[in-house]
Description:
Elements: E1 2-4, H1 5-8, E2 12-15, E3 18-31, E4 37-43, E5 47-50, E6 54-57, E7 61-63, H2 76-84, E8 92-95, E9 101-111, E10 116-126, E11 129-137, E12 141-144, E13 148-151, H3 160-164
Amino acid sequence: MQLLFSELIGMPVIEPHNRRPVATVRDVIIDPEKKGKVVGFILGKNRALAAMDVERLGNALYIGDADNIVPPEDLLRLQAIQQMQVHLIGARVIGETTGIYLGRVIDYSIDTKQMQLSSISVAKLFLFLKFQEKIISAHKIVEIRKETIIVKELETIQTKEEAVAPSSAIVV
């Protein structure tokens, strides 16, 4: 199943025996060195949850035990990635060989079974307007840097409208 970052933010974190939310998702931490592997989640009130402690991810984030929610400092890899200050949302996306500016990341999707980045949604922005929206597969990502994502050159760029249309369009 695919979930968008915009759908994950504010999602409740629920224990199986307690139907009330124990926290809400505030951010998703993605490892730039492992090509988009989800390492963990930042929850409200300065708490964190390792991705391996997630039992199921759907309309809520289900965990086995609330004791798995810890301060971010207790998860070493998560803390190291946070210190790199790599954020996908708002990052500039640039072609690898030509250096062509493709836009900024406005959203991204995560494969909930693999806990892996599956695609990024990119658009050029002018004030509050978005145009030339594209969906780029995570397989096309060459490198994730602090404020920039380098992607393989796109011979065919799929617009967001083509991705939604029931055609046989391929995500690049």
